[in-house]
């Protein structure tokens, strides 16, 4: 589904910035922090913040807090991650998720990675 259709379905006004933000998230293979997103977009910070608020409220994106930092990813592409408590590395866990829920928003498994052991 196209991003403009997704926004329209949630009755969210389609703007170039909103489409761009969703595109950035869709092109990343890992959740992005707010700072990482800011680096890629030339726009007013308030507009970006507001767009993220709306996306989150409509479950279009998912926010995860790791080491007091917020990370965002598309709700439709949410995966499971292992996060190291020491270096905060995020490693995608590629496993078949249990077939118990209609949809899984996110799963974060915390621990200490091999490098930090
Ligand atoms: Zn580590």
TrEMBL record:
UniProt-listed InterPro entries: FUR, WH-like_DNA-bd_sf, WH_DNA-bd_sf
Protein name: Fur family transcriptional regulator
Organism, scientific name: Campylobacter majalis
């Amino acid at each position: 589904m196209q991003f403009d259709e997704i926004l329209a379905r949630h009755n969210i006004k389609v703007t170039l910035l909103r489409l761009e933000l969703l595109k950035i998230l869709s092109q990343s293979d890992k959740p992005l922090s707010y700072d990482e997103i800011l680096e890629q977009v030339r726009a007013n910070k308030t507009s970006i913040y507001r767009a993220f608020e709306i996306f989150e409220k409509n479950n279009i994106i998912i926010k995860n807090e790791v080491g007091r930092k917020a990370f965002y990813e598309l709700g439709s592409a949410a995966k499971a991650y292992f996060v190291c408590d020491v270096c905060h590395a995020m490693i995608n866990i590629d496993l078949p998720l249990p077939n118990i829920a209609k949809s899984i928003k996110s799963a974060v498994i915390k621990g200490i990675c091999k490098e930090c052991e």
